[in-house]
Amino acid sequence: MKHKPLTQYLNSDFVKAANALRPKKARHRIIAYVESYDDISFWRTLFDEFEDDKFHFDVMLPTRSNLSKGKKQAMMNMLGSAFGNNMIACVDSDYDYLLQGATETSKRMISNPYILHTYTYAIENYQCYAESLHQVCVQSTLNDTQLLDIAEFMKLYSRICFPLFVWSILLYRVHDLNTMPMMKFCEIVRLTSFNIGHPEHSLKQLNQRVQHNLSQLNHRRPDLKGKYEALKKELVELGVTEETTYLYIQGHHLVDGVVLRILGPICRSLRHLREEEIERLAYHRIQYTNEISAYHNSQCDVSFALRKNSNYKGCVPYARLRADVQRLLGEIKAEKNTPNNPTRNGNLKNQPTP
User: How much is the pTM?
Assistant: First the structure.
């Protein structure tokens, strides 16, 4: 007879029992499953804020299945009944948070108090937090000159995208995946060009595309006009403001189609300025060669600096995520188990704004 591996019986109660067998002064262990190796650093950084002499988190990947495709769905199917105070899942929200139960995946994610989700579309959106992007350029180029107010540019970008983003969420809520699929939306809102000297040209082109598609959508789906206005108000209540729309669009697209298209030219200009400064200040050719070599060796690629960016802790969605962790630890401290509590990491309309 083929026996099941012992790991298949692992659940929150098992971890709780294992914690009870440890010495009284030992820290309480909470297993936190994440979707991929790339996610470990983000969740580790978050949990570091809460670990003390009483609690610690073990961040790991589920090992019972290949999660290469449909990672979040696979993890919830695999471990859904096993979650509890002592074993949690940590996932990207994707659109599921904003769909508010319109799909089965969304319903499961926002109703399970032991599934922590990012609130933003993905971890990449945090790394693209507008207020931190100048620091990303500094890390990449070692030049603190501000050639462009990137945070303000991202606000303007978001304001233009917001009306079309509302349409994107609305179409997904009514299960219309053909009128404007996510990939089409991403193609519309990407930056086709960017000039540091005239960033307004990029925004003008973007606005023209958005307005054209808004006109088409209003013509093709006039039946959704009433739902559109209601959803716009609801999204604001859920945390999506006109100036932060970029945090909720598809993460990989935001990185490749928007942020790196801005940061790439900026970083090239910053490097050029620093190299000119080194040449101007060098007393002789040997000193110039040594200084320029040292500078080149100290730089890093801007995409690498962006992936390592962790200066997003002032972001409102991150504050909500921290509040979820605090509630979880509060439940453990009180030795309570409330798996069907719908207000935790679900609909923010019932939660106070941090």
Answer: 0.85
| Cβ proximity of 253 and 169 under 8 Å | no
The proportion of the chain whose per-residue pLDDT surpasses 90, expressed as a percent, equals 67
Sign of the torsion angle spanned by Cα atoms 134, 140, 145, 147: negative
C-beta separation of 262 from 153 below 8 A: yes
Q: How far apart, in whole angstroms, are the C-alpha atoms of residue 139 and residue 161?
A: 29
- The pLDDT tens digits for 158-210 are 999 999 999 999 999 999 999 999 999 999 999 999 999 999 999 999 999 99
Given its phi and psi angles, is residue 304 left (phi above 0), alpha (psi -120 to 50 degrees) or beta?
A: alpha
Buried b (16+ CB within 10 A) or exposed e, 242-264: bbbbbbbbbbebbbebbbbbbbe
C-alpha dihedral (322, 326, 332, 335), degrees to nearest 10: -140
**Amino acid (one-letter) located at 288:** Y
The pLDDT value given to residue 78:
61
**Distance separating alpha carbons of residues 301 and 293, to the nearest angstrom:** 16
Answer for the pair 68, 53: CB distance below 8 angstroms, yes or no. no
Q: Are 33 and 89 in contact (CB under 8 A)?
A: yes
Give the number of residues written for the chain. 354
The two beta strands, 55-60 and 28-34, are: parallel
Tens digit of each residue's pLDDT (9 = 90 or more) over 249-308: 999 999 999 999 999 999 999 999 999 999 898 899 999 889 999 999 999 999 999 999
Give just the sign of the alpha carbon dihedral 231, 237, 240, 243.
positive
**Cα 268 versus chain centre, distance:** 26
